[in-house]
Amino acid sequence: MPAHRIVRAWFEASVARSEELAAGPPEIAFVGRSNVGKSSLLNALCSQATLARVSRTPGRTQRVNVFHAELDDGRALRLVDLPGFGYAKLSHAQRDEMAPMVAAFVENRFSIGWLKAVVLLHDLRRDADDDAIGFAAHIRNVQGKVELVATKADQVPKTRRGAMLDTLQKAYGLRWPPVAVSTHDGTGLDDVRHLVLRACFPQPPKKPRK
Ligand SMILES: Nc1nc2c(ncn2[C@@H]2O[C@H](COP(=O)(O)OP(=O)(O)OP(=O)(O)O)[C@@H](O)[C@H]2O)c(=O)[nH]1
Ligand SMILES: [Mg+2]
Question: Residue 116 — left, alpha, or beta (φ > 0 → left; ψ -120 to 50 → alpha)?
Fold first, then answer.
Protein backbone atom coordinates (compact mmCIF):
# COMPACT_ATOMS: atom_id res chain seq x y z
CA MET A 1 0.00 0.00 0.00
CA PRO A 2 1.44 3.43 -0.84
CA ALA A 3 2.26 5.45 2.27
CA HIS A 4 0.52 8.69 3.14
CA ARG A 5 2.52 11.54 1.70
CA ILE A 6 3.61 14.86 3.07
CA VAL A 7 1.75 17.49 1.08
CA ARG A 8 2.86 20.64 2.89
CA ALA A 9 5.99 21.45 4.84
CA TRP A 10 7.64 24.58 6.07
CA PHE A 11 10.61 25.71 8.13
CA GLU A 12 9.63 26.15 11.74
CA ALA A 13 12.73 26.90 13.82
CA SER A 14 16.48 26.69 14.05
CA VAL A 15 17.70 25.88 17.53
CA ALA A 16 20.88 24.85 19.32
CA ARG A 17 19.28 23.02 22.23
CA SER A 18 16.16 20.93 22.78
CA GLU A 19 14.90 23.33 25.46
CA GLU A 20 14.49 26.04 22.83
CA LEU A 21 11.89 23.99 20.96
CA ALA A 22 8.31 24.05 22.24
CA ALA A 23 6.07 21.01 22.25
CA GLY A 24 4.39 20.12 18.98
CA PRO A 25 3.36 17.14 16.84
CA PRO A 26 5.29 13.83 16.86
CA GLU A 27 8.91 14.24 15.77
CA ILE A 28 11.33 12.28 13.61
CA ALA A 29 15.01 13.23 13.62
CA PHE A 30 17.56 12.64 10.86
CA VAL A 31 21.09 11.98 12.04
CA GLY A 32 24.33 10.70 10.58
CA ARG A 33 27.73 11.73 9.37
CA SER A 34 28.23 14.97 7.65
CA ASN A 35 27.38 14.78 3.93
CA VAL A 36 25.50 11.46 4.26
CA GLY A 37 22.32 12.95 2.76
CA LYS A 38 20.14 13.98 5.75
CA SER A 39 18.89 17.26 4.32
CA SER A 40 18.38 15.68 0.88
CA LEU A 41 16.23 12.90 2.33
CA LEU A 42 14.15 15.37 4.31
CA ASN A 43 13.60 17.42 1.15
CA ALA A 44 12.65 14.32 -0.85
CA LEU A 45 10.09 13.24 1.75
CA CYS A 46 8.53 16.71 1.54
CA SER A 47 8.84 16.88 -2.29
CA GLN A 48 10.60 20.23 -1.93
CA ALA A 49 14.09 20.52 -3.33
CA THR A 50 15.09 23.55 -1.30
CA LEU A 51 13.39 23.15 2.06
CA ALA A 52 16.44 22.01 4.02
CA ARG A 53 19.80 23.17 2.72
CA VAL A 54 21.78 20.65 0.74
CA SER A 55 25.46 21.30 0.31
CA ARG A 56 28.66 20.02 -1.16
CA THR A 57 30.41 21.48 1.84
CA PRO A 58 30.24 18.94 4.65
CA GLY A 59 29.11 20.42 7.93
CA ARG A 60 26.73 22.94 6.41
CA THR A 61 23.91 22.12 8.81
CA GLN A 62 25.31 23.32 12.12
CA ARG A 63 22.14 24.03 14.02
CA VAL A 64 19.08 21.87 14.52
CA ASN A 65 16.59 22.83 11.83
CA VAL A 66 13.00 21.93 12.47
CA PHE A 67 10.29 21.57 9.82
CA HIS A 68 6.56 21.27 10.27
CA ALA A 69 4.92 18.84 7.87
CA GLU A 70 1.34 17.87 7.05
CA LEU A 71 0.16 14.61 5.55
CA ASP A 72 -2.48 14.23 2.86
CA ASP A 73 -4.97 13.22 5.58
CA GLY A 74 -4.28 16.35 7.66
CA ARG A 75 -2.10 14.78 10.37
CA ALA A 76 0.94 16.81 11.35
CA LEU A 77 4.49 15.81 12.24
CA ARG A 78 7.85 17.44 12.73
CA LEU A 79 11.00 16.61 10.82
CA VAL A 80 14.24 17.48 12.57
CA ASP A 81 17.43 17.95 10.55
CA LEU A 82 20.40 17.53 12.87
CA PRO A 83 23.99 18.62 12.27
CA GLY A 84 26.22 15.87 10.89
CA PHE A 85 28.81 14.35 13.14
CA GLY A 86 32.22 13.15 11.96
CA TYR A 87 34.04 14.42 8.93
CA ALA A 88 32.78 18.00 9.03
CA LYS A 89 35.20 20.56 7.68
CA LEU A 90 34.95 22.43 10.93
CA SER A 91 37.54 23.47 13.44
CA HIS A 92 38.38 20.73 15.93
CA ALA A 93 36.63 22.68 18.68
CA GLN A 94 33.41 22.89 16.64
CA ARG A 95 33.63 19.24 15.60
CA ASP A 96 34.09 18.07 19.19
CA GLU A 97 30.96 19.95 20.14
CA MET A 98 28.81 18.44 17.40
CA ALA A 99 28.36 14.77 18.39
CA PRO A 100 27.57 15.47 22.08
CA MET A 101 25.21 18.25 20.97
CA VAL A 102 23.34 15.86 18.67
CA ALA A 103 23.26 13.13 21.34
CA ALA A 104 22.03 15.53 24.04
CA PHE A 105 19.32 16.92 21.76
CA VAL A 106 18.04 13.48 20.80
CA GLU A 107 18.18 12.14 24.35
CA ASN A 108 16.24 15.10 25.70
CA ARG A 109 13.53 14.89 23.02
CA PHE A 110 13.08 11.15 23.66
CA SER A 111 12.93 11.67 27.42
CA ILE A 112 10.13 14.23 27.14
CA GLY A 113 8.27 12.00 24.70
CA TRP A 114 8.09 14.21 21.61
CA LEU A 115 10.70 12.39 19.55
CA LYS A 116 9.36 9.10 18.18
CA ALA A 117 12.37 7.78 16.25
CA VAL A 118 15.79 8.65 14.97
CA VAL A 119 16.49 7.88 11.34
CA LEU A 120 20.22 7.13 11.33
CA LEU A 121 21.64 7.54 7.85
CA HIS A 122 24.61 5.60 6.57
CA ASP A 123 26.22 6.00 3.14
CA LEU A 124 25.76 2.59 1.53
CA ARG A 125 29.23 2.83 -0.05
CA ARG A 126 30.98 3.19 3.28
CA ASP A 127 31.94 0.63 5.90
CA ALA A 128 30.06 0.86 9.16
CA ASP A 129 31.91 3.23 11.44
CA ASP A 130 32.32 3.24 15.19
CA ASP A 131 30.86 6.74 15.64
CA ALA A 132 27.53 5.77 14.07
CA ILE A 133 27.41 2.30 15.70
CA GLY A 134 28.18 3.90 19.07
CA PHE A 135 25.50 6.51 18.48
CA ALA A 136 22.89 3.85 17.65
CA ALA A 137 23.83 1.85 20.76
CA HIS A 138 23.61 4.97 22.89
CA ILE A 139 20.14 5.83 21.62
CA ARG A 140 18.90 2.31 22.27
CA ASN A 141 20.34 2.51 25.80
CA VAL A 142 18.16 5.51 26.51
CA GLN A 143 15.17 3.55 25.14
CA GLY A 144 15.06 5.47 21.89
CA LYS A 145 14.03 3.95 18.59
CA VAL A 146 16.65 3.92 15.81
CA GLU A 147 15.86 3.19 12.17
CA LEU A 148 18.92 2.68 9.98
CA VAL A 149 18.66 3.92 6.40
CA ALA A 150 21.43 3.40 3.82
CA THR A 151 21.77 6.43 1.52
CA LYS A 152 23.05 7.06 -2.02
CA ALA A 153 21.93 3.61 -3.21
CA ASP A 154 22.16 4.87 -6.82
CA GLN A 155 25.96 4.79 -6.41
CA VAL A 156 25.98 1.03 -5.86
CA PRO A 157 24.97 -1.48 -8.58
CA LYS A 158 21.74 -3.30 -7.72
CA THR A 159 23.51 -6.65 -7.74
CA ARG A 160 25.81 -5.55 -4.92
CA ARG A 161 23.29 -3.78 -2.69
CA GLY A 162 21.95 -6.89 -0.89
CA ALA A 163 25.36 -8.00 0.33
CA MET A 164 26.23 -4.47 1.48
CA LEU A 165 22.94 -4.14 3.36
CA ASP A 166 23.58 -7.50 5.04
CA THR A 167 26.99 -6.25 6.16
CA LEU A 168 25.44 -3.13 7.67
CA GLN A 169 22.74 -5.21 9.36
CA LYS A 170 25.43 -7.32 11.08
CA ALA A 171 27.61 -4.34 11.99
CA TYR A 172 24.73 -2.49 13.64
CA GLY A 173 23.20 -5.65 15.15
CA LEU A 174 19.81 -5.16 13.46
CA ARG A 175 17.01 -7.67 13.09
CA TRP A 176 16.44 -6.65 9.46
CA PRO A 177 18.68 -5.13 6.81
CA PRO A 178 18.37 -1.35 6.59
CA VAL A 179 16.26 0.33 3.91
CA ALA A 180 18.33 1.51 0.93
CA VAL A 181 17.35 4.93 -0.42
CA SER A 182 18.34 7.26 -3.20
CA THR A 183 17.03 10.77 -3.44
CA HIS A 184 18.37 10.86 -7.00
CA ASP A 185 16.21 8.04 -8.39
CA GLY A 186 13.57 7.66 -5.65
CA THR A 187 14.63 4.19 -4.50
CA GLY A 188 13.27 3.32 -1.06
CA LEU A 189 11.48 6.62 -0.41
CA ASP A 190 8.15 4.89 0.14
CA ASP A 191 9.79 2.54 2.65
CA VAL A 192 11.11 5.54 4.56
CA ARG A 193 7.65 7.15 4.46
CA HIS A 194 6.20 3.98 5.97
CA LEU A 195 8.75 3.84 8.75
CA VAL A 196 8.26 7.52 9.58
CA LEU A 197 4.48 7.05 9.75
CA ARG A 198 4.74 3.87 11.83
CA ALA A 199 6.93 5.69 14.35
CA CYS A 200 4.84 8.88 14.54
CA PHE A 201 1.40 7.30 14.46
CA PRO A 202 1.66 3.78 15.89
CA GLN A 203 -1.44 1.67 15.37
CA PRO A 204 -3.10 0.52 18.57
CA PRO A 205 -2.79 -3.26 18.96
CA LYS A 206 -5.76 -5.07 17.42
CA LYS A 207 -8.21 -6.54 19.93
CA PRO A 208 -8.28 -10.33 19.78
CA ARG A 209 -11.47 -11.64 18.19
CA LYS A 210 -13.86 -13.37 20.51
N1 LIG B 1 24.36 10.17 -5.55
C2 LIG B 1 23.62 10.66 -4.55
N3 LIG B 1 24.01 11.78 -3.93
C4 LIG B 1 23.24 12.26 -2.93
C5 LIG B 1 22.05 11.59 -2.50
N6 LIG B 1 21.52 12.28 -1.47
C7 LIG B 1 22.34 13.33 -1.26
N8 LIG B 1 23.37 13.34 -2.13
C9 LIG B 1 24.44 14.34 -2.23
O10 LIG B 1 25.25 14.32 -1.05
C11 LIG B 1 25.68 15.63 -0.71
C12 LIG B 1 25.30 15.95 0.73
O13 LIG B 1 23.91 15.95 0.85
P14 LIG B 1 23.17 16.65 2.09
O15 LIG B 1 21.74 16.29 1.98
O16 LIG B 1 23.54 18.10 2.18
O17 LIG B 1 23.87 15.90 3.31
P18 LIG B 1 23.75 16.20 4.88
O19 LIG B 1 23.84 14.89 5.56
O20 LIG B 1 22.54 17.02 5.15
O21 LIG B 1 25.08 17.05 5.13
P22 LIG B 1 25.44 18.01 6.38
O23 LIG B 1 24.27 18.91 6.60
O24 LIG B 1 26.67 18.70 5.93
O25 LIG B 1 25.70 17.11 7.56
C26 LIG B 1 25.04 16.58 -1.74
O27 LIG B 1 26.00 16.84 -2.73
C28 LIG B 1 23.87 15.76 -2.28
O29 LIG B 1 23.51 16.10 -3.61
C30 LIG B 1 21.67 10.39 -3.22
O31 LIG B 1 20.64 9.72 -2.95
N32 LIG B 1 22.50 9.98 -4.22
MG1 LIG C 1 22.35 18.85 6.08
Answer: alpha
* Structural domain containing residue 136: 6-200
More confident residue, 100 or 31: 31
The reply to whether 206 falls in a domain is no
Which of 33, 35, 154, 179 has most ligand 1 atoms within 8 Å of CB, for mutation?
35
CA separation for the pair 151, 107 (Å, rounded): 24
Q: With respect to residue 181, please indicate whether it lies within any of the assigned structural domains.
A: yes
Q: For the whole model, what pTM was predicted?
A: 0.91
**Which of 40-44, 119-123, 201-205 is the least confident region?**
201-205
What digits encode the pLDDT tens for the residues 84-109?
A: 876 444 455 555 556 778 888 999 99
CA 102 – ligand 1 centroid, Å: 18
CATH number at residue 95: 3.40.50.300
Neighbours of ion ligand 2 (CB under 5 A): 38-39, 61
Residues 6+ apart with CB under 8 A from 107: 139, 142, 144
Q: Ligand 2 center to residue 76 CA distance, Å?
A: 22
